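Hi L.,

You mentioned the student needs an example of a multi-chain input paired with its predicted structure. This one should do, with 575 residues in total across all chains.
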Amino acid sequence: MKFRELSVYFDKISQNSSRLEITRILAELFKKLTTDEIEKVVYLLQGKVAPEYEKIEFGLSEKLIIKSIVLALNIEREYFEKEYKKIGDLGETVEKFKTEIFSFEESNPEIKEIYDNFYKIAISSGEGSQELKLGILSHMIRQVDPLSARFLVRIPTGNIRMGFSDMTILDAYSWMIKKDKSLRPIIEKAYHVRPELGYIGKVLKEKGIEVIKKIEPKVFTPIIMMRAERLSSAKEILKQIGRCFVEPKFDGFRLQVHYKKGFNPEIKLFSRSLEDVSFMYPDIIEAVKKQVKASEMIFEGEAVGYDYSIGKFLPFQETVQRKRKYQIEEMSKKIPLKFFVFELLYKDGKSFINEPFIKRRKELEKSIITKKNLKEETILIADEQIINEEKKLEELFDKAVKENLEGIMAKKIDGVYKPGAREWNWIKYKKSYSSKIKDTIDCLVMGYDLGKGKRADFGIGAFLVGVYDEKNNRFLTVAKIGTGLTDEEWKQLKIKSSKFKVQKKPDNYLVDKTMESDIWLKPSIIVEIRADEITKSPVHTAGLALRFPRLERFRDDKNISDITTFEELKKLIIR
Ligand code: ATP
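Structure written out for the whole complex:
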């Protein structure tokens, strides 16, 4: 397909706000594309050239894009910028100029050519790369027709966003085959194992739904991690899953390790949000080389800081300082990590995700070399016991809390690993659950007020937080938080916010007039909030409000999709 035809689809989608209609248009588009094209188009639709987890950026500033445009169109920069200011959208401004300036060079390129060029732009770095990027982009701008130029320049600016998520694309895949959404659960399951939207589309088109059902993990493609349900007593846990495995709940951060043996073993570490964080933890990488016994393996665990001088685990706030881009060696000495592994997902060509927990655990024990020596080793296997008695379970919980741990994790003996799902196969029981809410809440920071009094120095006052209403794809407010943060936390919030300010309230924020913010932020910053109670509220659009909300911590390790949903919030209320 030509890029011109794709741009007509871009245009149709951008004019539509109904999710169902967008799904239909996407399905029609996907039907027309070849298997190679579908893979590329899915990424271009999202302003990318690769799956989200690969984090490949174009590295094109707005300044460089404008430079490419004026070079391509052979016009004065000031003239272009004046028009751009009037129109307010880079894409539409280029379209206008292209319509007015007759060009002989338009060559109506194929999608593949445009994609390959964008890919080149994205992977070029270092000396001379800016010139190369500029050259390629201006060449493409010259090549395409005015409508295509509008979308072409929107792709690298990140403004291509058409108002739909990965889930709409999965729905559209289902529509492409069945003209309804009925295949979405099967496709989504495959996507959780291989979160590469383009690849899933390609396999579906080429091989069909039966092959999608059997999709297996692949080393170095992160698997979306399984989550735990929550309960607040041993009694409830045993009632829910019966005799079960119980492990300590370590309060650090989760890592998924991908390993391939070799003279130079290849190792990648992924965070919960599927970010490649390998470079941050050289100590864990070294330990994986020494302690893993397999040719290929995918496994998971929790990394937690350890204080050798007192033989205790460090609190989360200290452990989390290891998540950084600089001074890595220095910090790895200051805050050594212990990595407690608890899950095996794949080993030597065999997927373990559909195996019962007991079998995964047995194989995991065979695959890690350990003397169970906390002082000498970095990788350990999480301790576990089979428990059938309430009293025994409560004792383990108390013991864990005394050891500075968060609580315990109960695991269903024959439970499978369900990528991306929160189910009863794992149940967390945390010390905080003694309050009237069963868990802390992961909220989105939607906006903030400019500070008054002392807060004016920080330039930030109370901030508005909300949860996600999945059904209607919008955010609902639950609290405005103005106290309880340390000076350092206020400063951090201000710095984080500076990157995400937007001119007006995002369309999918539902906010009561009395709760409007001075500054709005696009969905980016996630905070973990602890509250004493959830009460009914006439002013918060969730209809519920958090009583005495406190910032527990920033959750940079989480994605927008991890924000507590409205449905989950309702379930947290203890009646
Ligand atoms: P979510 O419930 O969405 O995963 P969260 O990060 O707030 O969110 P917790 O409520 O702390 O998570 O509970 C689940 C997390 O507990 C896991 O993601 C993992 O990082 C951690 N964890 C610690 N110890 C264990 C263990 N033994 N088994 C499984 N997970 C563990």
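You could point out the following to them. Residues 227-228, 247, 249-250, 254, 302, 342, 382, 409, 428, 562 surround adenosine-5'-triphosphate (CB under 6 Å). The first strand starts at residue 227 and ends at 230.

Best wishes,
N.
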